[in-house]
What we know:
By secondary structure, chain A is an alpha+beta fold. Chain A is 31% helix and 24% strand.
Amino acid sequence: xxxxxxxxxxxxxxxxxxxxxxxxxxxxxxxxxxxxxxxxxxxxxxxxxxxxxxxxxxxxxxxxxxxxxxxxxxxxxxxxxxxxxxxxxxxxxxxxxxxxxxxxxxxxxxxxxxxxxxxxxxxxxxxxxxxxxxxxxxxxxxxxxxxxxxxxxxxxxxxxxxxxxxxxxxxxxxxxxxxxxxxxxxxxxxxxxxxxxxxxxxxxxxxxxxxxxxxxxxxxxxxxxxxxxxxxxxxxxxxxxxxxxxxxxxxxxxxxxxxxxxxxxxxxxxxxxxxxxxxxxxxxxxxxxxxxxxxxxxxxxxxxxxxxxxxxxxxxxxxxxxxxxxxxxxxxxxxx
Amino acid sequence: xxxxxxxxxxxxxxxxxxxxxxxxxxxxxxxxxxxxxxxxxxxxxxxxxxxxxxxxxxxxxxxxxxxxxxxxxxxxxxxxxxxxxxxxxxxxxxxxxxxxxxxxxxxxxxxxxxxxxxxxxxxxxxxxxxxxxxxxxxxxxxxxxxxxxxxxxxxxxxxxxxxxxxxxxxxxxxxxxxxxxxxxxxxxxxxxxxxxxxxxxxxxxxxxxxxxxxxxxxxxxxxxxxxxxxxxxxxxxxxxxxxxxxxxxxxxxxxxxxxxxxxxxxxxxxxxxxxxxxxxxxxxxxxxxxxxxxxxxxxxxx
Lengths: 336, 302
């Protein structure tokens, strides 16, 4: 039986040798395709036979895996309550290198810092946010539309055309007119690719890389345009000290009291140092189910640098700068 | 003289010159001493023994002159004269230096000087304004970042996260009384008030079971009935809670309920007024009724 399977119409010596090899190995095995350890599928020169051998190998591996699973399941059942807990698969989030600056919710020092930092004015309800959105020089259509949509998402936002003004001169004027935030969207090759977010009265300046911008009309199954209601804000996964300050920065963009009537929510979700922004309208179907519908634009941000004062590229004091060679060396280390 | 003609024949019109750049319509000369930049018999610095150019270095303009007397000394061939920074004075200097030279060269030198001063002025103006800083992107890094972003997006499971957060906020009560889902209180109330509802139901059943209800009740207490009864429990539970919990705002709640009905149409079953359970009871009643009348009719027909 085994011989018949292996024999092929071809009088070449090489092939006969292989046949002999195949025969021997198959004869040695007891049941079907068992492979002795020294045998490797890649040594067979004939493509068809190599392929069939490989398939058999895969089949066997799969069977073994299934058997192993069944055995484990039986053992678990048998042990019942005493069974060891199920193993959790490793994910990048699980394996993340523990960051020493992770904020403990009850940390007093952090709480004290946050009580006295630049956003304390906002969080103590002394100021209301007012945002000025502008671009780099000569924006193209996509960037302009992105700015407009951002202005609808963020309440009290005004878009101004740049016209070649120097930011250092713009900033004192903004301060005098009562703006709390300056947002500059940098553009390259007709596509927005950078965001500078500057908290105005002497606040920190964050520089982000913007990617995957989707405007409203490019979104599938979107809802109608956002209304004027103040949206809620969700900030997810900002764990470290740096992440905390960035999160507060985003929170201070929006006014304090969200109008729940509007049922709109803006989400900043941090995952592996990428901040995803989404804008949804939600509706509670019952107490366990909520439906969300995406409105507004979506984009992702990646923090490049955080500067202590207002925007000053030459003499600014940088609190955090993304240094590629140091910080990107490990795949399990994240900073936000 | 013949020498120059020979040179031009060798390099000029149709033959090879290493400074020559040919395009479809024109020939350019890349020689740095060339005054017009085109490859012509009159503008070729190699084929003219008497030649002059204006060049600029580091913001200063210089006049270069070549005469036939120095043709044998290539190291000293070009005479360099520094021109004044003032444009008018520089023009005068050119005139003075090239006084008996052919008109063409003089004219072209002045033209070149004009162009150079114009672009120097523009450079100075631009450096005062803000300039774009070009940051080189590393393709490998960009690709890596893009891939990582995609993976992060998949790992983030944004919609689930947002839904979870919203439900948590609902549970914590940040929304106050806007949504009338009696959440965990509702669950407890369910358990507490099951007895009450059962007793009420039993009473009702007793009232209406006068006559022909007995065996039908068992059949009907199956799947669909159970769900209906749950809803009835919900209703009774919610209605009881509302009556108990709030004194003043009953009207508000009703209006909110109405609003809710508009908003959450799926909840219409649960939010119908108190007649609901009774209605459903009646529905069962109707079914019974039909079953009973049908055989009667048949009997009559036969």
